[in-house]
Amino acid sequence: MSPGVNVGGTGGLGARTPLAERLRPRTLDEVAGQRHLLGPGKPLRVAIEARRPHSMILWGPPGVGKTTLARLAAEAFDADFIALSAVLAGLREIEAALERAGGRRSVLFIDEIHRLDAPRQALLLPALQTGRIILIGATTENPSFALKHTLLSRLRVHVLHPLRDAELRRLLERARTQLPPGVQLDDDALEALIVHADGDARRSLNLLAQAITAAQAAHALAITAAFLEYTLTPQARRFDKGGEHFYDQISALHKSVRGSHPDAALYWLGRMLDGGADPRYLLRRMRSMAWDDIGLADPRAIRMVNAAADAWEQLGAPEGHLALAQAVVYLAVAAKSNAGGMAFGRAMQFVRSGGRLPEDVEDTGWYEPVPRGLEAGIAEKLAWLRSR
Predict the structure, then answer these.
(1) Which CATH number is correct for 19-159, 3.40.50.300, 3.90.79.10, 3.30.70.270, 3.30.1330.10?
(2) Most buried one in 3, 63, 327, 330, CB count within 10 A?
(3) 385 CA to centre of own chain
(4) How far is CA 239 from the centre of its chain?
(5) So what CATH class is 246-333?
């Protein structure tokens, strides 16, 4: 099977099949995102195209294609696909799956593999050591903390990323071709779905399916942004309990950090966590704040956020929320500088305009340190270097 060729088509998938299933990728080229793994010459694509099976962990947030990639890998490896959930499968179910896999090459896919306790992990080891199975585990948690070293050492870890807006947009454009007769999705509603999905492809399609059902019930001709907001359930609106859109709330958090207001930053963090915001999403935004707004004025900021992320992965809620809170306080009170980012922007503009920089050219002055925090010392050092 070539990964560029349809491996299943949509045969047997009728109009009543869930939209997410109808749009499930049948080839690697149809998978949204994950170009760092599936682009030309990238590791997972090379392994699948060459039909070189290996056991692996697919680690990433929900809705980024972990199950889809496991199915595509099984087809590429000409292997039976046996799926289990670590939440539901006990020792007996795992033993039965291993017996079933004894006859021919099989991919044993275990969803939420981080939930396997030590006895169930140990049960997999002999089959892995003898090559009886190809194990593919899916997890949203750091496998280094969840899996025993004896199991993890036999698995290759592939990290999957949330989908970018452009990748979600392409997916939803495909979904437009699957709309029932008489139902349309306007551009503003499509953009709103991208915002609500927060990098989760399955979520974006499930929200669209919910809106389609509501539109048919209301005999609406078009799904607009206003109609979408009206029909989404409170859970679908994510952390929007107070009526503001969640992107307004994350913007308020960002402004509080940028304005050095720790109490306001804690308020907006609390609002979003109380409303069900994914802490991993918040940590991604906090990392962006550490690089964009604080930068070299206080390099400890990014270390603080990374430590909070580690604490969240190990502790979960509610203890892990304290790590986020203390990190956001640190971001708010830290010295601020965007000098590094501004300098990089000037350099990129110079490069894109076709400029060249000989080694003996005078200092361009792109980087202008601010007189705050550590960067004040950097400014003194740079002034000394430029005076030599």
Answers:
(1) 3.40.50.300
(2) 327
(3) 42
(4) 18
(5) mainly alpha
